[in-house]
Amino acid sequence: MAKVKPRVKVPKKAAAGDIVTIKTLISHPMESGQRKDKKTGELIPRKIINSFTAEFNGAKFFSADIDPAVSANPYMQFSLKVPESGEVKFTWVDDEGSV
Amino acid sequence: MSSPLWTYRMALGAAVAALTVATALAGTVGPGDVEIVDDSAIPASLTGVAGDPVAGKDVFTGRKLGNCLACHQVSSLMDEQQFHGEVAPPLDGVADRYSEGELRLQVVNSKVINEDTLMPAFYRVEGLNRVNEKFEGKTILTAQQVEDVVAYLQTLKE
Amino acid sequence: MMKKTVGLGVAASVVLAGGLAVAELREGYVYFEPSSEEHPLDEIISGREFRDDATRALQEDDFENPGFLSLEEGEELWSTVDGSENKSCESCHGDVAEGMAGVGSTYPKLMAQGGKTTLTNIENQINTCRTERMGAEAYKYDKPQLTGLTVLIKNVDRGEPVNVSTEGDYESWFKKGEELYYTRVGQLDMSCAHCHEEHYGEYIRADHLSQGQTNGFPTYRFKWQGMGSLHRRFSGCMKNIRGVPYAKGSDEFLALELYTAWRGQGLPVETPSVRN
């Protein structure tokens, strides 16, 4: 099983009111649940990241529900208008719980 | 590979094959016994059973069968089949340029005509190197499939 | 080594010495002059040039390029102690950027291995280090750890021209690789050259045939939804033509790796590249 590891790019500094671009990439196989094991013919169980949220100082400002058609290692890019200095928190949740 | 549909089709295929064996085996030429005339044509049918151009079109386009469109283009198939290859000549009007026997040799083993060609020999088992065990000792197409493709190619007139 | 860009309208009409028309690459594609007069190609083109704008853009952005996930895994392993000798790669080689400079662009190389000199690629050399110096177990070919370290090492030389040795003791390996390149295999009875020398730039069904250059490996491939080694790609090609592939890491594939690297002599290392 490949390791699950996120990469995040957020500008370190921004003036209040600035719009910043945030990029995230996470390693994940995104197994769709529709492929068959070539040897046994059994379906490979679905294992995908099904939701993603980004919070700024505890307030959710971006979220996404993700479906099986998304390919491995999902990449997200979105913007945030920064009201004040603070911390951005990202959460990816997969079919087996939190990652 | 164990879906019910697949099983059904396999069973049907086996039944048809059994019938064909009973009626046509005596007339089927093995890949080692094909008679090539003047290094340019195979005038005689491989099976003695007339080729079916409709079945031949399926063999021609089937990616696990002839997969001819991997390399060749056919204008009349542009609407129903995406992505025709470019590495080999277009086959529009091929029936005007070649006789039935010449077309049959092209499909069976075009290396007789051009030894450097990248075109696979579709009815040959000798002289191959490191063949995957799944395909070892087997021809790419059956004798009847070759006949069907040749019948389809003969419909490609301009 | 000259780098050239094909100008407007020229791309569609480039003609090889052999008289084969080279099919359309996009306008402005980059090619390099062959390294010697014996080279079978008139122009050396990275696989990158055969991919579309979006794929190239993904490769170029070090953040978006998913190959960097693998590189980061390699970075972690570089300094991780493993095996009975209590050593990491870093213990002997120091900082990877210094210790591994000039490696990625010059492998495969002849190296001592198990008491004899043999042709070795980066993957095999990592495993030799692990078994002979670290007292650790060898990684299986194409395991994420081995790929990660290979990507890390090859990436140090990113942008450097591929520069493999082919003379002297290398010659027999080179000749062996050349022979394999031109040998027909499989039920479909084709050699590497049939597609990648005679028909690059053309479509085989929906696939745009490249020159089969190796400068971007290990690569992130959409079809794999992940990383893969050059030997994995060799293996896939041989299976496509219904042949029996050689084993990954085998002498045959090493010889072919040396020969194909020479066919791309002068191309910049791109690891980790992104391909279809």
Overview of this protein structure:
The complex is a heterotrimer of chains A (99), B (158) and C (276). Chain A is mainly beta and 99 residues long. Chain A has one domain (6-98): Immunoglobulins (Immunoglobulin-like). Chain A has strands at residues 6-9, 19-26, 49-56, 59-65, 75-81, 88-94, 97-98. A 4-stranded antiparallel beta sheet of chain A has the order 4-3-6-7, with no helix packed on it. Chain A has a 3-stranded antiparallel beta sheet with strand order 1-2-5, with no helix packed on it. In chain A, strand 6 (88-94) and strand 7 form a beta hairpin. The two termini of chain A are 14 Å apart. The relative contact order of chain A is 0.30. The mean pLDDT of chain A is 86. Chain B has one domain: Cytochrome Bc1 Complex, Chain D, domain 2 (Orthogonal Bundle), CATH 1.10.760. In chain B, helix 2 (53-61) packs across helix 5 and helix 4 (100-109) packs across helix 5 (143-153). Chain C is of the alpha+beta class and 276 residues long. Chain C folds into 2 domains: 3-63 and 163-275, Cytochrome c-like domain (Cytochrome Bc1 Complex, Chain D, domain 2, Orthogonal Bundle); 67-156, Cytochrome Bc1 Complex, Chain D, domain 2, CATH 1.10.760.10. Chain C contains 10 helices and 9 strands. Chain C has a 3-stranded mixed beta sheet. In chain C, strands 1-2 form a two-stranded antiparallel sheet. In chain C, strand 7 (219-221) and strand 8 form a beta hairpin. In chain C, helix 2 crosses helix 6 (144-156), helix 5 (122-134) packs across helix 6 and helix 7 packs across helix 10. Chains in contact: A-C, B-C. The interface between B and C is medium-sized, with 24 and 24 residues.
